[in-house]
Design goal:
Blueprint (H helix, E strand, L loop, with lengths): L11 H17 L2 E5 L7 H12 L5 E7 L4 H7 L4 E6 L8 H8 L9 E5 L4
Helix pairs in contact: 1-4
Amino acid sequence: MHDISVESRLLANNDEAAQHNREHFAEHGVYVFNLMSGPGAGKTTLLERTIDALKDRVRIAVIEGDLQTSHDADRIARHGVQALQINTGGACHLDARMVHGRLGEIELGALDLLIIENVGN
């Protein structure tokens, strides 16, 4: 009998995509903040207040994660910043590939701060 060692990082593909995202952000000098907590914890309200406090001094965009709706992205857009929706279709969080899929819609060079409101549960 022979022992076979099988080792691989379960999230290796996500780690690679995350590194690619970090390189994009660093290249453009964009600070990225991933906000995650359980549903109903007040993430969107916190974001609305943060945007209102900073938007005259900091160029902000938001990526909104949600299981199925665009309600939070609509709320954020009313505060005068770009808000992009990602629906996870039931996944409990945004992963790096999902975020990367929307980066082409954001002019990173025109931003100081990208906030990701992650689904989180």
